[in-house]
Design a protein that fits this description.
This protein has five helices and six strands, in the order H-E-E-H-H-E-E-E-H-E-H. With 151 residues, the chain is an alpha+beta fold. The strands form two sheets. Strands 3-5-1-6 form a four-stranded antiparallel β-sheet. Strands 2-4 form a two-stranded antiparallel ribbon. The two termini are 31 Å apart.
Length: 151
């Protein structure tokens, strides 16, 4: 089964804090993707093949110093090492930033506030603390939704 080759999923909810004012574009997905890839020197194949992000704050553009910024890092099977690498670099912010061009909205103006397991909400320090979303969990969720009433 193709789906089972992607599982288990591991996901981290990342909360950063701005250290100075910043203005982001309306759509955040591409800028956060570029920032993570460039900043943390991940090989394209490691990122494209095993990791993805969700940027729920898309649409918010003005951030002030001390404001929080949240996004989610998701890894499929095989992406565990890259996910840990990203977490370590995020833990080292702002010192892990390779550039500090003031025109860039995401640079050395952020620090990690918290990293949490997306599925449990528990704070983590290392990816070995993450729970996994595997085939039995997917099947249980599918069964739940299969009998849900629709509008």
């Amino acid at each position: 089964m193709l789906l089972s080759s992607l599982l288990p999923l591991r996901a981290i909810s990342i909360t950063l804090q701005f250290t100075e004012n910043s203005k982001l574009p309306f759509y955040h997905q591409s800028i956060v993707n570029a920032w993570l890839r460039y900043l943390f020197e991940l090989p394209d194949t490691a990122y494209e093949n095993y990791l993805c992000i969700d940027t729920p704050e898309t649409g918010c553009i003005d951030y002030r110093a001390k404001d929080y910024y949240r996004f989610t890092l998701i890894a499929i099977r095989g992406g565990e090492t890259s996910l840990q690498h990203l977490l370590e670099k995020l833990q080292q912010l702002p010192h892990s930033v390779r550039h500090s061009k003031t025109k860039q909205p995401l640079r050395d103006n952020l620090r990690l506030h918290q990293a949490c397991d997306l599925f449990t909400g528990k704070a983590i320090e290392h990816t070995t603390q993450l729970s996994v979303y595997d085939l039995p969990q997917l099947q249980a969720e599918t069964n739940l939704w299969q009998y849900a009433q629709t509008c």
